[in-house]
Known about the structure:
The chain is mostly helical. The protein has a domain at 3-59. The protein contains four helices and no strands. The protein has helices at residues 3-17, 21-29, 34-39, 46-59. Helix 1 (3-17) crosses helix 2 (21-29) and helix 1 runs parallel beside helix 4. The N and C termini lie far apart (34 Å). It comes from Fuscovulum blasticum DSM 2131. This is DNA-binding protein.
Amino acid sequence: MSTEAIIRIAETxxxxxxxxxxxxxxxxxxxxxxxxxxxxxxxxTLRKAAVVTCWFxxxxxxxxxxxxxxxxxxxxxxxxxx
Length: 82
């Protein structure tokens, strides 16, 4: 997934819930500056992009349509501890 797509998803999510991008960044990436860094040209690893994108997919509001031109990752089922 491109950085532009991640930023678009994040901004859509933030706008819909009335949150700042830094708050969404804290929730999704555990770093309040991560998304703003991405927006200003910082790079990220494929692993971090996948983790953040999965977070958005798992926490996406039911009343908000996922952007049609952005592939949505499948929600991972969490295994219960034995």
